[in-house]
Structures are given as structure tokens and as C-alpha cells.
Design a protein that fits this description.
Largest sheet: 9 strands, antiparallel
Distance between the termini: 44 Å
CATH superfamily of the largest domain: Zn peptidases
Radius of gyration: 24 Å
Number of strands: 23
Shape: elongated
Number of helices: 12
Structural class: alpha+beta
Number of domains: 2
């Protein structure tokens, strides 16, 4: 499996990526990949340690003539987002990623690819294994759980690293040099409700929203992509007044950092309104598809008759929750006034689960301004508390403040222009990078982020551009040759 991937250039990088993608590595379940990386370092005879939270640190001395250069920390995260299409049969806990080549792109068969951040990990592995690549002393830092809380970066103690420069390999545009990022906080609303027996005069329907692109809830939040949870709520919002619609269950979205692609609901309506309900749903579905035809050409909304559910949720709670979901902001809240075209603050309405008397609504709120992040989180908190939910703010992590006087930034900007004949795009991003957190314990470390072109991260459409990886690899090698003196 994946033999054609191993023939791509640069072979040393793609082979390490194939090795890594054979190891299941979901966030919060990184035991196997931690052991894999520890063995990798030990097999090379390099100083290798696993810290108390599970981060792996591998140290390699400088090559001849490079010992006077500043020690470099090369950093990527081991975990990957596990998402698959509904019709894909795949077990992330036991199977390696099945990859294939399509034109200039490497993709996975119906699942996320793991290029985020596996290509960064593979890059560092290739450098550690190499015998002919010039580089200063390297401290390779492989963090865990970046995708669902950044607990690896948060748990990294001061003093474990001595490097003066950190190269974070987790950016997804090859012409971009990252100098800042957004912080984030999880907003989770929960409550219980009473279930009632479904009256005999009602009939059951399944409502399914599918075919959306999904994607990264930070980097793609401004692209106008459809949110399955918002679409589902729009479909059922006025259902009680018009057709006696009652909710039995809703299951929409998944991970907080992925824009929801799918949602399913089981509802009951008054049998007498069946024809009117189906007509209205068809009209509303067509309206929504027209609105999203440019960004979501494959959106599909399926309404199908099913066995009448035995129990439905309390009407008062239903009315309150559907209104709260309508009111809850999803998407861009504010653009940056200081950095052109940068999303400052946003929210992803990531997960809606209503079933068996329990409600859970999960959001990820991001901002490059700490006060704005808290402001939007409190806006969501107030929205859900008004309908009787308990709201918890958790997993708070800071952003990374840009340093435009960075020494490594000046080196890399010149190298990029020399290699490619054009200036790089020096920018902050709306994703969560670990640099801000790592900087808390290593405040003097000069940090930068870059990487190859990766599209559709956090979705089954994730893909990595082969030609871009080649361009990025050459950039990496030149950077390591030109690290400033200590």
C-alpha cells in the first residue's frame, strides 16, 4: 500500500510520511505514534526522551562546520484529525491511511490525509536520519494533541530545550511565512430535557444534510462554506408552528476544528400535514442550495419517511434550543483592523447532539485578540444560557503575537526571494499554532512557521501538492544552511 507515494521526490521525505501514515495517530490516542517516534530516535542512536505529557524530543548534533550556529528547534505535532466520508468503511484505530496520487496532488481514499501535520513530522524525520544534509544542532520537538486542545504544547516544561530559533512546520501555504496566529477557546453548552411519548397522530421523517466540503474551521472560516448544523436548524426552525414538528434526535458535525459537513435528524410531524411538509422542505432545500451553489455545489438535503420515533423532546426546550442555534454566531465575527485580509475573530458551531434527554452543543471560538475572543465566547455563552443550558469555557490557549524584527524572519524572507524570484507573504493566520503556547515557557525563542501547500485540511478532501513539497524541501535545506551564528 502507498508504494507509489514512496517513489515521489524528495524520496526521503515522502518515505517518512508513508511510514508515519501507517501508524494510527488520532488526537488523545497517540500512544502508538509516541512509541514509533521514540523508537525512531533510539534506532538512530540519538538522544531521545518522552516528557511527562507525551511529547517526544530528539536531539542531533550539528554537522561538521556548523557547530557555531544557533541551535534550532524543529517542531511539528504528531496527531492528526480523523474524518471520513459517511460511505467510507475505515477504522482509524487500526488502519493506516490509504493514499493515492491524482495529478500534482497526494490524497487519501475517503479520509483525511494527515498531511496536517504529518508532512512537517516527516520533514524533521528525514533531517534527523540524513547523513549528507548540512544543519546546526537540532532539537526535534514532536508535540501531541495539537488538534484537540494543544495539551502537548501546554505541558512542555521550560528547560527541556536550549534552541534559540524554532521552526514550526505547520503552515499550509508554501508562499507564506507565518509570524502570528489566533488563540482559541472551546464553548460547550449542555442541558437535559424531558422526553415525551410521541402521539399516535404523528409520523416520522429522517432529515439528512450531506455533501458539504467541510474544512479547517480557522483557515477556511471566511470562505462562505456551508455549516451542516446551521442548515439543519434552518430546515426545522418553524416546523412546530407549521406542521407540529417535534424533534426526536439530531446528530450533526464532529470535531470542533472542522467545519461540519453532515447532520442527521429524526423528527415527527402531524400526519395531516405530510404533503405540505414535503413541499415546504423541497422549496426550502432548493433555496439553500441556490444560496450555496458556488461554495457548496454538492450539497444534498434528503427528506425521507421513516418509522415514527417512540419519544420526542419537550416542546419548550425544543423551541428554546432551535432559537439559540439560530442566534448563535457561526463564521467571521470581525476582520482585523491592523492586518489586511486577516480574520480576527470567528466561531465554528461544530457539534450539535440531541438525544435521549441530553443536549450538547460544541463551538470553537478563535481570535488574535484575547479580549475579542472572550467577548465572542461570552456572547455565545449568553445565547445558550438564555435557553437553560449550562455553558463551560475550556481549553483556552493564547495567540502568537507577531515579531516583525525577528532575525530568522529576515533570513528566511531573503532566502525565499532568492530561491523563487518573488517576495514571500509574511502573515499571521487565523489557525491555532503552538508557537504562542511554547513561547510562554520559552519567551526568548525566535519563532517562525512555514510549510507546503495543503488544501482541505480537517476534511476527507485534504490533499498535499507534490510540486509544492519539492519547493518547500529546497527551502528547508537552505534555511538550515543559513542559520545565524549563536
Amino acid at each position: 500500500m502507498n508504494s507509489e507515494i514512496r517513489q515521489l521526490e524528495p524520496k526521503q521525505l515522502w518515505n517518512k510520511f508513508a511510514d508515519l501514515n501507517a501508524v494510527p495517530r488520532p488526537s488523545k490516542k497517540e500512544e502508538r505514534v509516541i512509541a514509533f517516534m521514540k523508537q525512531f530516535g533510539e534506532n538512530l542512536g540519538l538522544e531521545t526522551q518522552v516528557d511527562k505529557v507525551g511529547n517526544v524530543i530528539i536531539k542531533k548534533p550539528a554537522t561538521p562546520g556548523m557547530a557555531s550556529k544557533t541551535t534550532v528547534v524543529m517542531q511539528s505535532h504528531l496527531d492528526m484529525v480523523h474524518q471520513k466520508n459517511n460511505n467510507t468503511v475505515f477504522n482509524f484505530d487500526t488502519q493506516g491511511i490509504d493514499m493515492f496520487i491524482e495529478g500534482d496532488w497526494v490524497k487519501a481514499k475517503g479520509t483525511t490525509l494527515g498531511a496536517d501535520n504529518g508532512l512537517g513530522v516527516a520533514t524533521i524525520m528525514a533531517i534527523l536520519e540524513s547523513k549528507d544534509i548540512e544543519h546546526p544542532a537540532i532539537e526535534a520537538l514532536f508535540t501531541i494533541d495539537e488538534e484537540t486542545g494543544m495539551t502537548g504544547a501546554m505541558g512542555l516544561e521550560g528547560g527541556l530545550l536550549t534552541g534559540g530559533i524554532l521552526l514550526n512546520l505547520d503552515t499550509e501555504e508554501d508562499d507564506e511565512i507565518g509570524v502570528g496566529c489566533a488563540g482559541g477557546v472551546d464553548v460547550t453548552a449542555t442541558r437535559t430535557y424531558k422526553e415525551e411519548e410521541t402521539p399516535e397522530f404523528k409520523i416520522g421523517f429522517n432529515i439528512e444534510v450531506k455533501g458539504l466540503q467541510g474544512g479547517h474551521s480557522g483557515m477556511q472560516i471566511h470562505e462562505g462554506l456551508g455549516n451542516a448544523n446551521k442548515i439543519m436548524n434552518r430546515l426545522i426552525f418553524d416546523g412546530f408552528e407549521n406542521y407540529g414538528l417535534r424533534i426526536s434526535e439530531i446528530d450533526g458535525g464532529g470535531l470542533r476544528n472542522a467545519i461540519p459537513r453532515e447532520s442527521k435528524a429524526v423528527v415527527a410531524i402531524d400526519a395531516i400535514h405530510e404533503d405540505a411538509f414535503l413541499l415546504e422542505m423541497a422549496m426550502l432545500s432548493n433555496t439553500i442550495k441556490k444560496e450555496l451553489k458556488t461554495t457548496e455545489p454538492d450539497l444534498d438535503i434528503v427528506i425521507s419517511k421513516t418509522e415514527t420515533p417512540k419519544r420526542i423532546m419537550d416542546l419548550g426546550v425544543q423551541e428554546g434550543v432551535t432559537r439559540a442555534l439560530y442566534a448563535a454566531l457561526n463564521g467571521v465575527y470581525r476582520m482585523s483592523a491592523d492586518i489586511p485580509d486577516l480574520v480576527e475573530t470567528s466561531n465554528n458551531l461544530a457539534r450539535v447532539l440531541i438525544k435521549n434527554g441530553h443536549i450538547k452543543i460544541a463551538c470553537l471560538t478563535r481570535s488574535s485578540v484575547e479580549s475579542a475572543k472572550l467577548d465572542l465566547a461570552n456572547t455565545l455563552r449568553a445565547t445558550f444560557e438564555l435557553t437553560g443550558c449550562e455553558v463551560e469555557l475550556s481549553g483556552d490557549y493564547p495567540g502568537w503575537t507577531p515579531n516583525m524584527d525577528s532575525a530568522i524572519l529576515k533570513v528566511m524572507a531573503k532566502l525565499y526571494e532568492d530561491l523563487n524570484g518573488e517576495k514571500p507573504h509574511v502573515a499571521a493566520c487565523h489557525a491555532g499554532l503552538e508557537c504562542g503556547i511554547l513561547g510562554q515557557n520559552y519567551p526568548e525563542m525566535d519563532m517562525i512557521s512555514f510549510g507546503p501547500n495543503i488544501k482541505g485540511a480537517h476534511s476527507p478532501d485534504e490533499r498535499a501538492q507534490i510540486s509544492s513539497v519539492q519547493k518547500y524541501w529546497k527551502f528547508v535545506l537552505e534555511i538550515l544552511k543559513n542559520i545565524p551564528e549563536a
